[in-house]
Amino acid sequence: MSHISNPYAQGQWAGGSYWQQALNPHSPTYGALPSPPAIASPNTMTFQFNTNGGGPLDSTVTDTIKTYFNITTGVINGVRVTTFSSAANGATLATIEWTDQAPIVSIGNRVQRQDATRWLIFSHDRSTASLAVGHDAFTWANQGGLIKLYKRAAGNSSERLGKLYWNGALNSLCLDLHVALLQTPGNLEIFVVAAAMLQSQSAL
């Protein structure tokens, strides 16, 4: 997958690009994302992308005690494909096909196979990205160096329910999600896939 044909590799949040950072083995891959204060919340679960020096598209997703997903990227029938599989039984839960035209995403029975640029939609100035999950609408927004997740509500109001950030203490990309989001089966897969796409490296 070339840099030119990957819209997520070209994506640039206000204040800096997270897709054009050079990989440096002596510093965090996601150094543009500062570490937030380590404040525990009983209403939030933290998921880590454990990359062992690689990117989020070749990683495992864990909390403090459990591994949820294995994320692997390889070439299948000439197309670079990222597969999100269950750590429990190896079942494929989601895929991203990095075709020359546009990435194609599929997530179980929650997101039918489709052009990812129509699923994860950047604003004109690329400062935000919108995402539909069932009947709910969400927005990823760069604020203060963190990518925050908001649920949009009536009257143009919004509620922050998550964030994506680099945790220096854990040496890991982390995704915090409010427990309310995790009560619906399949939601975790959706937000993990979206987060991985947002932080994929330009080499993909």
- Give me the strand/helix succession: HEEEEEEEEEEEEEH
Shape: globular
Strand-residue proportion? 35-45%
**Overall number of domains:** 1
Structural class: mainly beta
Helical fraction: under 10%
Number of strands: 13
Structural Rg? 16 Å
Strand line-up across the major sheet = 7-6-5-4-3-2-1-13-12-11-10-9-8
Query: Could you tell me how far the N terminus lies from the C terminus, measured between alpha carbons in angstroms?
Result: 5 Å
Supply the number of helical segments.
2
Q: How confident is the prediction overall: mean pLDDT?
A: 79
The biggest sheet, with number of strands, parallel, antiparallel or mixed sense and barrel status, is: 13 strands, antiparallel
- Uncertain residue ranges: 1-7, 10-38
SSE layout and pairings?
Blueprint: H1 7-10, E1 44-50, E2 59-62, E3 67-76, E4 79-86, E5 92-98, E6 103-107, E7 111-115, E8 120-122, E9 128-133, E10 136-143, E11 146-152, E12 158-167, E13 172-178, H2 187-198
